[in-house]
Input
Amino acid sequence: TGFLRLPPGTDAEAFAAFAFEQHGVRLVPGSFFQAPDHVRISFGLIPANLDKALGVLGTALDAWAARRPAP
Output
């Protein structure tokens, strides 16, 4: 398990919903763990699936950043 810090001002709950709905990646908003600017990720996959999931997570982060104006 790990916690990914999101860029300042990112709504972790909205990003987690976006990542799942648009990219099929499940994340847990950090607010459940008193870390509201983070999302929780799990590394409990076989290596090939983990590699793919992390790549998709990167795509989701890029897509999220592209849809929001920079602060």
